[in-house]
Amino acid sequence: QFNPNYASGRTTMVHLFEWKWNDIAAECENFLGPKGYAGVQVSPVNENIVANNRPWWERYQPISYLLTTRSGNEQQFANMVRRCNDVGVRIYVDVVFNHMAADRANARGTAGSTANPGSKSFPAVPYSSTDFHTTCTINNYNDANQVRNCELVGLKDLDQSKSWVRDRILDFLNKLINLGVAGFRVDAAKHVWPSDLKTIYNRFNNLNTQHGFAAGSRPFIYQEVVDLGGEAISKYEYTDLGVVTEFLHSASIGKVFRGGDQLRWLTNWGTAWGFLPSTSAFVFVDNHDNQRGHGAGGSDVLTYKNAKQYKMANAFMLAYPFGIPRVMSSFAFDNTDQGPPTSDGNNIASPIFNADNSCSGGWVCEHRWRQIYNMVGFRNIVSNTNVQNWWDNGSNQIAFCRDNKGFVAFNNDNYDLNTSLQTCLPAGTYCDIISGEKSGSTCTGKSVVVGSDGRANISIRQNENDGVFAIHVGSKL
Ligand code: ARE
Ligand code: CA
Q1: Around Cβ 202, how many Cβ atoms within 10 Å?
Q2: Which ligand neighbours the alpha carbon of 194 most closely?
């Protein structure tokens, strides 16, 4: 439950927010597998309400557990899981079982089912009013009973202490396990009693050995529990059950790279910052909520809209040995309700891929930015090494080694970094994987000569496109 079940040598998953299953299958084969990504978090897979103007958030309003959404149907989902597992990329499903849809006239789902949320009737499961908590509103996060038993933004709140409810949830989740998924993001876990979650998790099937998992492997569980401090519910109530989202990481890394904290303080990044222990902490720079002002993290959260700082924050998250990281991959948006790009206002459009790996057609594809995918490769190469030779200039220029496997430097000051630093790498010429990458025996970006003493002259000018410099044993020319 704590192990992501990644293929060996891989470390980092990406959230392909609102992508279609066929597109994800192709992305596993064409890009994610070859670039070393470990997994994909996919948007909710079960039938959701069809909302006016098709906002992204309709997918968090379940109508049934039929596997048909705007991302595709059951057969397309199964095909994606198979194809991704075949190239060493695991699939994690965002599962929504705290609640069903909120009240809405003529409620209709993406698989064609009808429901009457107002009377808590969801015949396609089926659920009826006795399967839900009595209606009340969550307006006080200092009251744990209210947070668990009342309705989050009006979403009809399931009672997971009922065996009928548990059995329906388990039928759904075990079906996904049998189809080959490696684990789950548990949506709104904070709003479910930990004791009920425990009962449900204990009844999960083992992972499907026909998809390459070792016999007896347990599904990876990462639970969405927002705890920035000062509320009744603590993230530590969930750490015995699985990994937990660390929203403080998102808020803090944004604040640092926006200039609200000096980079030199990053030297003790981890529990000293109030974060969960590394093996319990699921970390990210932004997520699908807080990149658009929903959820938690506040105005410091960095997104693709602040590209230079965003790439620096992701590079630090991936370079530093803390937590289980997830890269966000977005569609472009101007308003917080806007759904994914469509071909006709309803059907989701596929991303368009450009020669430089980037996407268009309304998709941002942060995971295809060289500075991000090359740092995923960096994390893979330096895994199981330690931070050594921390250097800083007393303000916003820092550098460190990962044993003798990799070296990274950051400049968030408004003046140049240009100095001799210890890289801990064997002598040779190395290609910076941020400004370019190794292409055959040449480097498309900056290269640097490491001397026999491990030192090299490192330069990151303040006006460069990127404030990061990174080399590793695999980028030696
Ligand atoms: C939508 C509309 C609402 C409407 C509702 C019902 O926006 O106006 O009332 O539908 O018709 C997402 C969207 C919601 C959306 C919902 C359902 O963000 O806007 O509502 O889908 O369509 C809390 C929870 C946390 C939750 C965040 C958003 O604790 O679990 O709020 N995050 C997850 C998902 C979301 C999703 C849901 C849960 C629901 O990641 O994408 O909602 O499935 C403090 C607290 C936090 C709290 C935060 C915000 O920081 O500590 O616990 O997070 O405030 O309230
Ligand atoms: Ca609840």
Answers
A1: 10
A2: 2
The residue whose C-alpha atom lies closest to atom 15 belonging to ligand 1 is 57
Rounded-to-integer distance, Cα 426 and Cα 424, Å: 7
Q: Which atom of ligand 1 is nearest to the CA of 231?
A: 51
224 carries an active-site annotation? yes
Q: Are 391 and 405 in contact (CB under 8 A)?
A: no
Atom 36 in ligand 1: which residue has the minimum CA distance? 60
Query: What topology is assigned to 13-381 in CATH?
Result: TIM Barrel (3.20.20)
**Percent of the chain at pLDDT exceeding 70:** 100
- pLDDT tens digits, one per residue of 321-366: 999 999 999 999 999 999 999 999 999 999 999 999 999 999 999 9
Which residues contact ligand 1 via a Cβ below 6 A?
57-58, 60-61, 96, 102, 141, 152-155, 187-188, 190, 224, 226, 231, 289, 294-296
Which residues lie near ion ligand 2 (Cβ < 5 Å)?
98, 157, 191
* Nearest atom, ligand 1, residue 188 CA: 30
Average pLDDT, the chain: 98
pLDDT band per the 50, 70, 90 thresholds, residue 275 = very high
Cα angle at 300 between 407 and 358, to 5 degrees? 60
The atom of ligand 1 lying closest to the CA of 227 is 51
- The residues, any chain, with a CB within 8 Å of residue 311's CB and separated by 6 or more, are 369, 371, 372, 434, 466, 467, 468
Mean pLDDT of 123-137: 98
Q: Taking residues 222-229, what's their average pLDDT?
A: 98
- CA of residue 455 to ligand 2 center, whole Å: 56
The residue extents of the domains of the chain are 13-381, 387-475
- Based on the residue annotation, tell me whether 187 is a catalytic residue of this protein: yes
The superfamily in CATH containing domain 387-475 is: Golgi alpha-mannosidase II (2.60.40.1180)
Read off the pLDDT of residues 226-259 as tens digits, 9 standing for 90 and up.
999 999 999 999 999 999 999 999 999 999 999 9
